[in-house]
Write a sequence for this structure.
């Protein structure tokens, strides 16, 4: 019969009669080409990022509504957050985004050592971020600035009436949003470490760097969320 | 041009049945538990959601049995007390919505059929597909656990402030819903990527079957709406544990804010429920009318329009909740707008049937039932969207009847029709057509007995979720309960003959209905890799003109 | 792959310039927070506008959206659009309620009740 028949049962990669040996080991059987696979992975990752935008976005909406409900208390509560520390964390994350994208570039240009170095610096930046957050959280714990019915801070200007405590609500959102963000950073560190180990083993090169690219996208989203968190919590008063 | 697989292929129809298909290619339970084959995952989902439907249905029968008389007695003894009644209807709702309807068509039928319709070998992310299924299982286990350790009694809508203060196991159930949400998100994500990137050569966007368009529109909603449900559950759980002060008015929160959060997902969720059902009908009607679909592009666009407009109407669940008047009016107007795409589809299906060569096999019986029952359900939605009537009908049995008409008369009917339509493809066997007609008749009659009655109950003032009711409502309640028995019998018969068909030998033809979409090109059941040769699209969708069978 | 690797040096330069721009914008937004732009709402608008510019830079350059296939950009924007719809309609409700806050909340000034049009019933004598 016709030699251009593509016989998928015996030649799952669709490359013609010699379907073995020349194939990328990462090539999944249901994709015709590696490029199709890469493009599909990208779409999948962006869809996941969109879900993260809506997940965090819900918290932003809740924060916004509660700010409208307790404007004075939220304004006063803001003053407990230290602007320099927030700014430092912002800078740290922006730098980590840069090292991440430089890592992706290194993978794409077959520079294994540079990839690993950039990834390690990214992880270090993430750890610095978490360290600063730990310092900030300790301060809040000391002052009794805790969420919900654990709030024990004294000296607030507006008294609590019938359990309605706008300050406690502010700190509930503070811990929820920075906490969820922190969890994403932890997951990010794990992903970055995994990519760094694989990169060190030489698994990535100019024809296959998809995991680095996708982890990079995730990491940039973590940075993006902080770009909005920072002004909302630290700069508006 | 490659000699590719098409409907004109002279071998279609008299090809020998392949010895190995997706069901027996590998054996053993481990091969099923670790499968990444979309067909096997679809079958597992089918079993899973059918089990959930059974459990939810049992709870429904118990609700109806309790309401048979105002004294709630059966054979002289009170069946269940009021607290238990609250738990029973909550679990009926939560199981049906989260464990059955939302995952049903996407997880089972779409999973099985979508790659075949696209001429693909699998979905974009097969391992993610399996993960979605295991997330469903985890959510199901948590939901069952929550039932056992102090079942939720808030209604499936978890309204605050009751849900933040009740002692029932809201925490476990919110965790279950959170996890089930991610199952849904990953399925949607998978399907969007699949439709974008894995179409057969020659298949542009407007050559795809309408089932694919419907699945794609549904997937958009799954990806964009479900995360908000996730964060709502997180906020509810944290409110219960920490009293964060967002939803509970006692500590300065706003219970209506919870409703905004909840319905921002849950209204689009009802489109996750109905759009796949409509997508199935868009396949069944042309096939059993042997006529091309009327208004292909209109139906395709209306699926996407429903998905997008569905995000703009959630406030119509909150007309009397304390929402501002302006918001109420805006949401009401948008609700009228969102009815239009559904209407477009209904008229297009009818136009398809007009002057068609109609045959009334079981899938078509379900298809026609869908058109009638969804029309009633959709129209009664308009009564509820109009503010002046909603004031009287809200929170009555009218609402209960409306959503059962669209969800059960709509989605479940379409789901059962789709299961029949693709049964030969999935199992390699034909079900008994005689019993199919009996089952469908009983389901149709029983359904209307149960729920048409409830429109009258509601407009006469019977509130929903009430354990006690006035004597005057008893005849209608009793009739509705009798209907539930007929409906239950019809569903049992349907399950029975479908399962019985599995004992027959695998003798279904490749294309028993004469369908024109690509899944009918492969064997019944398909081989593991779906197609022996990459199919290439050679004709417009739903082209029923006779094709040359053999070379001259 | 689909992305150009012809000129890595040029790409690296773009990334560095983006980082510098982001750091500068961070400085600006911190500085702006010390200035009072009239109402509190104006400060919010300024801060969020700068944040959006930063986010756009990250998305276009670090996340490669500028040179990527359009579908990815559409997905990204769609997420933000639907979030915006959620915010907008919920605000529509909250901002237009006639009696938005419960009377027992601290710091709430309730409007005086409307003047009665019917005379109050005469008080009972014990």
């Amino acid at each position: 019969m016709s030699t251009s028949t593509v016989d998928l049962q015996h030649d799952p990669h669709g490359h013609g009669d010699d379907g073995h040996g020349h194939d990328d080991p990462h090539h999944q059987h249901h994709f015709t080409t590696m490029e199709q696979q890469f493009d599909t992975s990208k779409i999948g990752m962006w869809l996941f990022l969109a879900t993260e935008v809506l997940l965090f976005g819900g918290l932003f909406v809740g924060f916004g509504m509660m700010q409208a409900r307790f404007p004075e208390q939220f304004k006063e509560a803001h003053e407990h957050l230290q602007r320099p520390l927030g700014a430092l964390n912002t800078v740290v994350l922006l730098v980590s985004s840069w090292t991440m994208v430089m890592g992706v570039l290194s993978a794409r240009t077959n520079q294994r050592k540079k990839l690993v170095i950039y990834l390690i610096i990214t992880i270090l930046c993430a750890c610095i971020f978490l360290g600063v957050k730990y310092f900030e959280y300790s301060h809040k714990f000391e002052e009794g600035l805790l969420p919900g019915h654990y709030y024990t801070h004294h000296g607030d200007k507006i008294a609590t009436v019938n359990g309605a405590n706008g300050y406690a609500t502010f700190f509930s959102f503070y811990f929820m949003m920075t906490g969820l963000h922190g969890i994403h950073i932890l997951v990010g560190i794990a992903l970055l470490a995994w990519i760094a180990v694989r990169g060190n083993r030489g698994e990535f090169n100019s024809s296959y760097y998809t995991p680095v690219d996708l982890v990079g996208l995730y990491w940039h989203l973590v940075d993006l969320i902080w770009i909005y968190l920072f002004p909302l919590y630290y700069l508006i008063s | 041009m490659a000699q590719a697989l098409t409907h004109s292929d002279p071998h279609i129809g008299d090809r020998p049945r392949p010895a190995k298909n997706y069901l027996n290619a590998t054996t053993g339970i481990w091969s099923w538990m670790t499968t990444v084959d979309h067909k096997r995952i679809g079958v597992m989902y089918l079993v899973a959601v059918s089990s959930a439907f059974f459990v939810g249905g049992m709870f429904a029968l118990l609700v109806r049995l309790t309401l048979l008389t105002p004294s709630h007695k059966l054979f002289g003894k009170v069946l269940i007390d009021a607290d238990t009644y609250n738990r029973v209807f909550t679990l009926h709702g939560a199981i049906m919505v989260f464990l059955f309807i939302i995952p049903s068509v996407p997880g089972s039928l779409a999973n099985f059929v979508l790659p075949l319709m696209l001429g693909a070998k699998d979905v974009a992310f097969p391992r993610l597909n399996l993960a979605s299924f295991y997330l469903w299982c985890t959510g199901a286990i948590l939901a069952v656990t929550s039932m056992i350790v102090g079942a939720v009694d808030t209604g499936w809508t978890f309204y605050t402030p009751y849900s933040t203060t009740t002692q029932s196991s809201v925490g476990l159930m919110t965790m279950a819903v959170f996890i089930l949400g991610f199952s849904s998100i990953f399925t949607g994500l998978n399907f969007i990527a699949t439709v974008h990137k894995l179409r057969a050569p020659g298949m542009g966007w407007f050559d795809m079957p309408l089932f694919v368009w419907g699945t794609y529109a549904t997937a958009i909603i799954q990806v964009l709406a479900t995360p908000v449900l996730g964060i709502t559950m997180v906020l509810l759980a944290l409110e219960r544990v920490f009293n964060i002060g967002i939803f509970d008015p006692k500590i300065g929160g706003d219970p209506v804010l919870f409703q905004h959060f909840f319905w921002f997902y849950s209204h689009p969720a009802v489109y996750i429920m109905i759009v796949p059902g409509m997508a199935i009908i868009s396949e069944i009607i042309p096939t059993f009318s042997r006529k091309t679909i009327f208004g292909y592009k209109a139906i395709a666009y209306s699926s996407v329009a429903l998905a997008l407009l569905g995000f703009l109407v959630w406030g119509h669940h909150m007309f009397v909740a304390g929402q501002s008047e302006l918001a109420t009016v805006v949401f009401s107007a948008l609700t009228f707008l969102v009815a239009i795409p559904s209407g477009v589809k209904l008229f297009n299906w009818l136009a398809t049937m007009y002057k068609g060569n109609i045959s009334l096999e079981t899938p078509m019986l379900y298809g026609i039932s869908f058109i009638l029952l969804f029309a009633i359900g959709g129209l009664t939605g308009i009564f509820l969207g109009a503010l002046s009537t909603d004031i009287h009908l809200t929170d009555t049995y009218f609402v209960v009847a409306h959503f059962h008409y669209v969800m059960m008369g709509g989605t479940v009917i379409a789901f059962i029709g789709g299961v029949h339509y693709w049964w030969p493809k999935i199992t390699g066997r034909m079900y008994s057509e005689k019993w199919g007609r009996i089952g469908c008749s009983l389901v149709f009659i029983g359904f209307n007995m149960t729920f048409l009655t409830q429109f009258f109950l509601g407009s006469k003032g019977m509130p929903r979720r009430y354990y006690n009711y006035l004597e005057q409502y008893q005849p209608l309640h009793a009739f509705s309960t009798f209907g539930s028995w007929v409906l239950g019998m019809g569903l049992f018969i349907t399950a029975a003959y479908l399962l019985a068909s599995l004992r027959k030998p695998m003798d279904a033809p490749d294309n028993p209905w004469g369908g024109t979409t690509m899944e009918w090109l492969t064997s019944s059941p398909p081989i593991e890799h779906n197609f022996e040769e990459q199919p290439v699209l050679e004709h417009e969708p739903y082209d029923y003109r006779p094709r040359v069978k053999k070379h001259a | 792959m689909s992305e150009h690797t012809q000129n890595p040096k040029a790409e690296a330069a773009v990334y560095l310039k983006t980082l510098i721009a982001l750091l500068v914008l961070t400085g600006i937004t911190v500085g702006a927070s010390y200035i009072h732009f009239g109402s509190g709402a104006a400060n919010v608008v300024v801060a969020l506008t700068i944040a959006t510019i930063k986010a756009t830079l990250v998305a276009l350059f670090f996340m490669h959206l500028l040179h990527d296939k359009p579908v990815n950009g559409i997905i990204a924007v769609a997420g933000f659009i639907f979030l915006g719809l959620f915010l907008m309609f919920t605000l529509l409700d909250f901002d237009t309620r006639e009696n938005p806050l419960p009377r027992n909340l601290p710091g709430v000034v309730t409007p005086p009740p409307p003047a009665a049009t019917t005379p109050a019933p005469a008080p009972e004598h014990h």
Remarks:
- Chain C touches chain A through 56 residues (CB under 8 Å).
- Residues 63 and 125 of chain C are 80 Å apart (CA to CA).
- Chain C has three helices and no strands.
- The mean pLDDT of chain C is 83.
